[in-house]
User: Which sequence fits this backbone?
């Protein structure tokens, strides 16, 4: 997937984000109007965040691969920064996965 065109990846993410944002808006709408906020709502929000972070992870991996492949002399510090961002995105995925599991049980 790292070889995927970033423009196509961005377009696909926009379409997916629209659906996720609608679901999250429905959850936050409940809170705003003092409706009951359930464990299922938290699990649904966590699932949405998992997808968002997976999309971010995919973009970061693609950008890193493109940078390494296309730059004549890639800067090690920039590559390391991409690696840190990728690691942070994976940590977020792990956190929201645990959160979803906790509130689904």
Assistant:
């Amino acid at each position: 997937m790292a070889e995927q065109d970033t423009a196509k990846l961005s377009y696909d993410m926009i379409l997916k984000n629209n659906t996720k944002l609608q679901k999250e808006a429905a959850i936050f709408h409940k809170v705003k109007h003092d409706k009951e906020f359930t464990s299922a709502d938290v699990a649904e929000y966590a699932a949405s965040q998992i997808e968002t972070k997976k999309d971010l992870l995919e973009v970061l991996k693609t950008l890193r691969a493109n940078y390494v492949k296309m730059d004549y002399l890639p800067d090690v510090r920039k590559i390391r920064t991409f690696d840190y961002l990728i690691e942070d995105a994976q940590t977020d995925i792990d956190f929201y996965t645990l959160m979803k599991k906790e509130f689904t049980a």
